[in-house]
């Protein structure tokens, strides 16, 4: 079973959300409505908890986890690229994009509409402000900021994932 209880903690999956059969969502996890949880993704609410907003895409092989008695908070309309790790992030803001293979570490904060480039490492307690782009190891802010053209392109991509949920007849309800 891909959505399961752990140690008496039960996931809550919003309406319209689709979880791939090879993904694992277990324990103290809340997933909003119309999210797409891809193949191999792991949302591990074993001793911390995870809160994922509405209309998010958690792509293939992502890992989301939290420290004991802490929360990993991810806003709405967030894209988590293939193979990224979000570990105990203080908050990932609405519409943020976390690139493929990126690591977002403990207590990091990613602002609304911020973008973290592929393969970057956002260190503990680091902050990527709203509408800024970070890249590298460790991640550093670039001069370029997120503009309207970027937002329009990414919003279209985000909508495609919501449509994927609509196309799949299997739904995990709250």
What does this structure look like?
By secondary structure, this protein is mainly beta. It has one domain: UDP N-Acetylglucosamine Acyltransferase, domain 1 (3 Solenoid). It has one helix at residues 148-167; strands at residues 3-4, 12-13, 18-19, 24-31, 36-37, 42-52, 57-58, 63-65, 71-74, 79-80, 85-87, 91-92, 97-98, 103-104, 109-110, 115-116, 121-122, 127-128, 132-135, 140-145. The strands form 3 sheets. Strands 1, 2, 4, 6, 8, 9, 11, 14 and 17 form a 9-stranded parallel β-sheet that branches. An 8-stranded mixed β-sheet has the order 3-5-7-10-13-16-19-20. 42% of the residues are buried.
List keywords for this structure.
mainly beta; UDP N-Acetylglucosamine Acyltransferase, domain 1; about 170 residues; about 10% helix; about 35% strand; 8-stranded mixed beta sheet; 9-stranded parallel beta sheet
Q: Report the sheet with the most strands, covering strand number, pairing sense and barrel closure.
A: 9 strands, parallel
Radius of gyration: 15 Å
- Compressed to H and E, one letter per element, the order equals EEEEEEEEEEEEEEEEEEEEH
Q: What fold name stands as the CATH topology?
A: UDP N-Acetylglucosamine Acyltransferase, domain 1
- What is the residue-mean pLDDT, rounded to a whole number? 93
CATH top level assignment = Mainly Beta
User: By helix and strand content, what is the structural category?
Assistant: mainly beta
Total number of beta strands: 20
Number of separate domains: 1
Oligomer: single chain
Terminal CA distance reads 16 Å
Portion of residues in helices?
Answer: 10-25%
Poorly predicted residue ranges: none
CATH superfamily: Hexapeptide repeat proteins
Which second-level CATH architecture applies? 3 Solenoid
Strand residue content: 35-45%
Please work out how many helical segments DSSP would assign.
Answer: 1
Give the overall shape, derived from the CA principal axes: globular
